[in-house]
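Aim 2, interim progress. The first record below pairs a target sequence with its structure tokens.
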Amino acid sequence: MRLLVLPFLAIALLGCTAFTTGNQRPALDVKLIGVWTGEYLEEGGTLKRWTQTRNADGTYTIEFSFTEKDDMAQSFSESGRWWIKDGLFHEIASPEKGHPDKYRYSFKKKDCVSFVLVESEGFAEKEDSYVFSECLEADSPPANFGKSI
């Protein structure tokens, strides 16, 4: 009888573990929620500026503006999901294909955060190959938890 109970108990326990880990929400750092602005000057002279809104439900939108050395400008937007895992900031654009970009981040000033790209598209990046800062412009709009992440 004991031999029959052990396999069923093992399956039940494994099923419970899979169920609880599958329904957990990703971790978020509440200090990163809000409307943030940043800029980055590329080696070729292109100035990238953006405004990113990180929401409390783990979604984000970014409005980009790229200005070339000849003053030609291009604008576009992106949306996706963000979360914190293993102490790194993760971000993936929708539709979700491939791997999220991963960044180390730290707050140098009260309302400014520095990011260092660690991994992009699943590949490790050279140390300090892409470093930028963002500063908080406004609090995020109220969270809408009706949609799942």
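The second target in this work package is listed in the same format:
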Amino acid sequence: MRIRLPFAGAFLFLLLLAGYAGLSSIQLGAYVNDKVLHFVTFFLLTVVFYWVVDTNRRRTLHMTLVVCTLILGVGSEFLQSFLPNNRDFDIYDIVANIVGSLLGLGICAWYHRRMLERKRQRKHYDAVPGEDTEDVELGQGQESGITDSSSRGRTLEEEVDNWDENAEDNWDEDNASIPDMPSPAIAKETDVADAREAKKRTD
């Protein structure tokens, strides 16, 4: 796990800017709709924070959800109501914060997944059928290395272990399927006898 410094710097800058605009007595509602401002602010904060920590996809998803959506999106509105800045608690501000944060989180999670899939394709990685929807970085969708025993031949030890002494032997059937072939000596004697008989007939 490492910190991406450019994204960390951008997130701190946006956080300070949003904190000053949201917690101070400055009124931006006269220039921009307050709910739109909340939506855009938390959308940008979530998108930037998602790429701050270089870790696996699930951990990044959970971390961003807790920090940006819950702590900042909900907690900032409660904190704002306790400060003497002539601002009142507004539930619709929380809704705008959460919607903007979830939209940014969804876009980043989708793009992160596509990025991992392209990386696997470049490495010629083939996922296990039925498990290719999971993230490898999370320990999901990985091959277990266990193969079906029916897909490979049985060894001599397995044959001996699975041998049933009460089973009926089929040696006679196997022998019956093999045609009787005369030995070379018998075949030679037969040829000699046939030659003598043919000579007697000619005499």
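The first strand starts at residue 2 and ends at 3. This observation will shape the mutagenesis plan for the next reporting period.
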